[in-house]
Amino acid sequence: MKRILIALAVLLSVQVADAQTKSPEAAKKAVVAAEEAAQNPKKSTKVATWVKLATSYMDAYNAPAGSAWVGASKQELQLLMGGQQPLSVVNVEVGGEALVKESYADKDFYFNSNGQLALIDITKPVVENALAKAIDAYKKAYEVDVKKSKIKDITGGLEIISKKYMDEAMNAYTFGDLVKASELFEAAANASAVEPLAKIDTTALYNAGYTAWAANNNDKAKEIFEKCLEVGYYYEGGEVFAKLGDIYTKLGDAKKGAAMLEEGFVKFPQSQSILIGLINYYISSGEDTDRLFVLIDEAKKNEPNNASLYYVEGNIYKELKQTDKAVEAYLKCADINPEYEYGFIGAGVLYYDLAVELSEKASNEFDDAKYNALVEQFETSLHNALEPFEKAFNLTKDEGLKVSIAEYLKNIYYRFISKGTSYEEGYNKYAAIVAGK
């Protein structure tokens, strides 16, 4: 999928070919028999009865897909399915990717350009809500299991159900159904929380909140992200605080949103999402933006040798359009930590972005004198970016970052290539790095 889902580092449970997979007809009969046994007064007191019912629901859930698994080739599936032919074959686009959709009576298979099965969509389940019913059966099994003899079976079953919900949630997200994806991620988290498994699945929980937020279901997103805070899960860089700040603002409580962002900033002062949220709040509310510097100064007191805090300060000044102070803060990073390249990168990017703005203004200016003045300012700003970028390039040990910096330097040197051989040499040097030579 082309879109990026923040924090969706989900390892999908791989569907592996299983020789024991029942046919839909057999699975349905097994469910009927297991349900009848569960209704029998004598059998309903036995843990095995409820475990059997739960596994019957799971067999019914798996039956339409048969032995198919994501990653299987068309040739492998044809062998497993006994040469069964699809009812229709059409080319479709899912999540920005071109796929081939093969439709059968109870399922759709989606194949990628390599002929591998990428998605399985069950269109005719054997039993509706089989996963939820399986959870209820496991709950009952745990309730009647006085000797706790089947804890391992029940726990394992709940783990499988949670993974199945995660698979379905990812499918829904891939198909662009954010509301359904959120519901299924939440179902996965709820399945993990059921006793005796009783686990907090922070990945499922965060993803449920994120997809609800992306779908503009702010009340649901607020509820789930607040659960994340309750269990002490903030996600990388404190993204939960950033999202809650945005959600409270959208729900009409901007002050609560700002308080949430400030709380997050104390814990994660380097979070760009939190920082941008705070800057937007103070600018839009008309409140004193000095509060931002109070927060960063508090962070500096706690970590006086943390060069990145001066980088954050530079970012604040940059957003407030205070260029000189931004550059001063960026360059201060090197005083704190001479090995910290991001201060130089920040200064270089600031000058470069300013040059781009001036270039755009010049292109729309029809007065010759004003145009020439803007071009001069543009060239000055672009030239100012050279030194910090050069320092960052020489300092960083990250090869990927070197290439990114070289891209900026290549463009700058090209602009001044007519001004002398040194600029031409600079252009050739960095162009070769960008080209991987």
Q: Which ranges are low-confidence, i.e. pLDDT below 50, for 5 or more consecutive residues?
A: 1-19
| CA radius of gyration | 29 Å
Largest sheet: 4 strands, antiparallel
Question: CATH superfamily assignment of the domain at 305-437?
Answer: Tetratricopeptide repeat domain
Morphology: elongated
Number of strands: 4
The assigned CATH architecture of the domain at 305-437 is Alpha Horseshoe
Counting DSSP H or I runs of 4 or more residues, the number of helices is 19
Can you walk me through this structure?
With about 425 residues, the protein is mainly alpha-helical. Among the domains are: about 25-150, no CATH class; about 305-435, Alpha Horseshoe (Serine Threonine Protein Phosphatase 5, Tetratricopeptide repeat), CATH 1.25.40. It contains 19 helices and four strands. The chain has helices at about 25-40, 45-60, 75-80, 130-145, 150-175, 180-195, 200-215, 220-230, 240-250, 255-265, 270-285, 290-300, 305-320, 325-335, 340-365, 370-385, 385-395, 400-415, 420-435, and strands at about 90-95, 95-105, 105-110, 115-120. The model is unreliable at about 1-20 (pLDDT under 50).
